[in-house]
């Protein structure tokens, strides 16, 4: 899939690889499209108990995001929905809120449709939106950091000097090194365990956090809603119905966990009516992360848990860099290689990878090394489990 730039511009290209793995069918679905005034949107939807819910999301999510944005734009802008008077920070907040609105609206709509057709399928979701045209952050000038002294009247000569400093700060490079000022933002919204990794130079930075039932805040939320968190026979943490549910009683009684099909290894997602009604044990409300893209950011990798359960973030970053820089492959080849590598490493799940290559930024050359703190976690084709040591959350 190609996002075609205007003449003289460099856009982005998107490659996809997907495989059913050891399962009978592939329930993963994708979205990749321009969303009018917002930018380019890509999505990975990992379905379970069938593909109906994932199909619904892949077809409807881009439009839902745009509709939610326009509703908020009309509410927070003027009567025509103009956002000219909004600061870049407020507009970015508006987009983030619209992503949350879209996820929740899609889940509500799916629950109504599923109830009519007696469907029980569900899906996790990860959406990435690339949006250009934001103002570059302005470096603070001496007056900005002068405390109360900045409030006193200043001589005209000093005012002129400060204005010049401010103008110079505003002209500093943004996302595209050769173009002063403009910043592109990467918005990610996710509910579940699909993952996004930003390639900043040779380093793979995790932009999302997997929603797992046993993680502190998620486990507390589930228990407050009346849900159950336990491990299956393979020591995988799962979320399920209330403790008085017959399936839970059987599992705690030491019986075989063939009833685990009613339990999920992720704590957020779409569908799964038995885990939403009457108790909101699993929710579709996403977490949202916004990243200002720098000239060193040259690609984003999105993948279902079939990829990242077997390959670490940095290994994925290294594989994509080697494929595209050392071997001259395109995003499609790199995405397919990721999927093949995950399957070779032991993934038995549906495995889907999306590689978004930013045409306006160059990847590090062949003689570069991995940045500080981003040493490769595997080499020579060896895959390792993912690590939380390097991410965009400061932990």
CATH class of one domain: Alpha Beta
The count of β-strands is 14
Number of helices: 8
Quickly give the structural class.
alpha+beta
How much helix, percentage-wise, in residues? 25-40%
Topology pattern, helix = H, strand = E: EEEEHHEHEEEHEEHEEEHHHE
Shape by Cα distribution: globular
Query: pLDDT below 50 for ≥5 consecutive residues: which ranges?
Result: 140-152, 371-389
Strand content: 15-25%
The name of the CATH architecture of one domain is: 4-Layer Sandwich
CATH superfamily of one domain: PPM-type phosphatase domain
Q: Give the spatial strand order of the biggest sheet.
A: 1-2-14-13-7-8
Main beta sheet strand tally, sense and closure:
6 strands, antiparallel
Indicate the radius of gyration in whole angstroms. 23 Å
Structure in words:
- The chain contains eight helices and 14 strands.
- The chain is α+β, with helices and mostly antiparallel strands.
- It has a domain at 11-137 and 173-211 and 266-358: PPM-type phosphatase domain (Phosphatase 2c, domain 1).
- It has a six-stranded antiparallel sheet. Strands 3, 4, 5, 6, 11 and 12 form a six-stranded antiparallel sheet that branches. A two-stranded antiparallel sheet has the order 9-10.
- The two termini are 34 Å apart.
């Amino acid at each position: 899939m190609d996002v075609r730039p205007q003449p003289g511009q460099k856009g982005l290209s998107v490659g996809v690889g997907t495989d059913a793995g050891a399962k009978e069918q592939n329930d993963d679905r994708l979205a990749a499209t321009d969303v009018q005034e917002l930018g380019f949107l890509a999505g990975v939807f990992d379905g379970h108990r069938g593909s109906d819910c994932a199909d619904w999301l892949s077809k409807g999510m881009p439009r839902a995001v745009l509709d939610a944005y326009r509703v908020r734009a009309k509410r927070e802008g003027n009567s025509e929905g103009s956002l000219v008077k909004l600061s870049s920070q407020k507009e970015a907040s508006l987009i983030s809120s619209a992503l949350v609105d879209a996820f929740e609206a899609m889940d509500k709509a799916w629950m109504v449709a599923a109830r009519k057709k007696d469907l029980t399928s569900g899906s996790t979701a990860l959406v990435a939106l690339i949006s250009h045209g934001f103002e570059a952050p302005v470096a603070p000038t001496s007056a900005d950091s002068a405390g109360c002294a900045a409030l006193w009247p200043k001589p005209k000569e000093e005012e002129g000097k400060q204005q010049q400093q401010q103008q110079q700060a505003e002209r500093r490079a943004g996302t595209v090194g050769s173009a002063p000022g403009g910043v592109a933002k990467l918005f990610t919204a996710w509910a579940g365990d699909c993952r996004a990794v930003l390639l900043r130079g040779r380093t793979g930075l995790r932009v999302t956090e997997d929603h797992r039932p046993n993680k502190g805040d998620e486990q507390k939320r589930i228990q407050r809603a009346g849900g159950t968190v336990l491990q299956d026979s393979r020591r995988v943490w799962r979320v399920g119905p209330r403790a008085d549910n017959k399936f839970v009683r059987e599992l705690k009684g030491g019986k075989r966990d063939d009833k685990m099909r009613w339990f999920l290894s992720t704590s957020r997602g779409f569908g799964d009516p038995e885990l939403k009604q009457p108790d909101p044990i699993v929710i579709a409300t996403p977490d949202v992360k916004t990243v200002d893209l720098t000239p060193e950011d040259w690609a984003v990798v999105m993948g279902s848990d079939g990829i990242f359960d077997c390959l670490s973030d940095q290994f994925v970053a290294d594989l994509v860099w080697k494929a595209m820089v050392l071997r001259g492959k395109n995003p499609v080849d790199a995405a397919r290689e990721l999927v093949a590598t995950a399957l070779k490493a032991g993934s038995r799940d549906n495995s889907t990878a999306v590689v978004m290559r930013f045409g306006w930024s160059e990847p590090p050359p062949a003689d570069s090394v991995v940045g500080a703190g981003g040493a490769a976690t595997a080499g020579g084709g060896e895959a390792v489990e993912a690590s939380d040591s390097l991410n965009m959350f400061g932990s």
